[in-house]
Amino acid sequence: MNGVMKKLFVLIISIALAMVVGCTQKEVEFFHGKEPNFKPGPQGGADLVEIKEGVDFKKYKIIIVDPVYFRFESTNQYNAIPPRALEDMRDAFDKSFIDALKGAYPLAKQPRPDAMRVRVAILNVVPSIQDDSSNVPVSLGGASMRAEFLDSMTNERLGAVMDTKLGYKNKALKTGDEWEQTKDVFKFWAYRLRNWLDTTHGKK
User: I need a labelling partner for 106 at 20 to 30 A (CA). Which of 32, 59, 172, 176 fits?
Assistant: First the structure.
């Protein structure tokens, strides 16, 4: 493994250790108000879920997606990602949710009674790295996220989720972009939200 690969490997290990540590108080501060009372999510769903009892999610036909927030455990983690790569990930996140929700759940910017506000923090982004000498993945890539769903008029929290997802084992990197699998994780989360909304509104 050459010097560059060793440096990347150290970065990946440090991020992976942060993912293993789990939810710290620092991470919980993302959420509005009290810490969510998380419970294990359903099979195929988010790792941890809180849903406010008695909420009629069918009333929310419009979605407001706040600008995504990337959180880093240290300055070194932040500095390890080129600014252009981070901006590309922000754009990829926005596009994922626009594509997933279009045609069914219009996006808005201003609060309204039928709009649900979605806040997302992305943590522990990990690049996809392959050792060219052996074609063995050093890292699959991936990310963790914290998200909450708010009534756009009152900012009352309707639900919250926490999840971590790695990249796909058998996917070959076509673009040479080491963040490609992380962007795929954004798509996965966006379409899982779409599927949940469709189920909630009786469209599935």
Answer: 32
**pLDDT, tens only, 50-72:** 999 999 999 999 999 999 999 98
Catalogue all structural domains in the chain, each as residue range(s) with its CATH number: 3-200 (3.40.50)
b/e string for 159-169 if b means 16 or more Cβ within 10 A? bbbbbbbbbee
The pTM of the whole model exceeds 0.85? no
